[in-house]
Amino acid sequence: MPEGPFLVVGLGNPGPGYAGNRHNVGVMVLEELGSRAGIRLTPGKGARARALSGEGRLAGRRVVLARPTTYMNESGGPVRGLLDYHHLDPADLVVVHDELDIDFANIRLKRGGGEGGHNGLRSITRSTGTKDYLRVRVGIGRPPGRQDPADFVLKDFSATERKELPFLIAEAADAVELLLARGLEAAQNEVHTRA
């Protein structure tokens, strides 16, 4: 694993109205990482203008933690700006995001692959010109019955899920730290056997 820095991005939508949404679980995990590492996220200027970010150390690696302040479907621009500003390759990018195709409370790690209809990932792929970045996929499960997935992700977690949410956020943050400390394969071996 390179020494870093790694750019760790938590995806979500801006504003208090979206804060508890399933779609914002990436931001929730990022906040947990910031609090563990004592990294404060502050508004940037220039290339970093459309994101809150902060630098520090996490799991023994140099990191830039960031959350775009744009809507989810425009996440790519701010991510590209941060990569350029910090002279990082998309291979050093870790994106933490919600994943419909994984059951609630499960976490999966991978590099590359499709976007599965996720507008945040689609925007990042378009802006970076590659799908070859690391993803920490936080399972939110499929919507019940015939509910539209687009509506489902913009709803808050259910009361039952909210009881589990602190554990899920902590486990996803642990997974990010493992990924940084030990690399993808070792982290996958540990995280994927927990489910």
From TrEMBL:
The active site is at 23 (proton acceptor). Pfam families: Pept_tRNA_hydro. It comes from the Bacteria. It is found in: Cytoplasm. GO terms for cellular component: cytoplasm. TRNA binds at residues 18, 71, 73, 119. It catalyses: an N-acyl-L-alpha-aminoacyl-tRNA + H2O = an N-acyl-L-amino acid + a tRNA + H(+). It is an enzyme of class 3 (hydrolase). CDD domains: PTH. The record marks 13 as: Discriminates between blocked and unblocked aminoacyl-tRNA. Its EC number is 3.1.1.29. Catalyzes the release of premature peptidyl moieties from peptidyl-tRNA molecules trapped in stalled 50S ribosomal subunits, and thus maintains levels of free tRNAs and 50S ribosomes. Monomer. This is Peptidyl-tRNA hydrolase. It comes from Petropleomorpha daqingensis. The lineage of its organism: Bacteria, Bacillati, Actinomycetota, Actinomycetes, Geodermatophilales. The gene is pth.
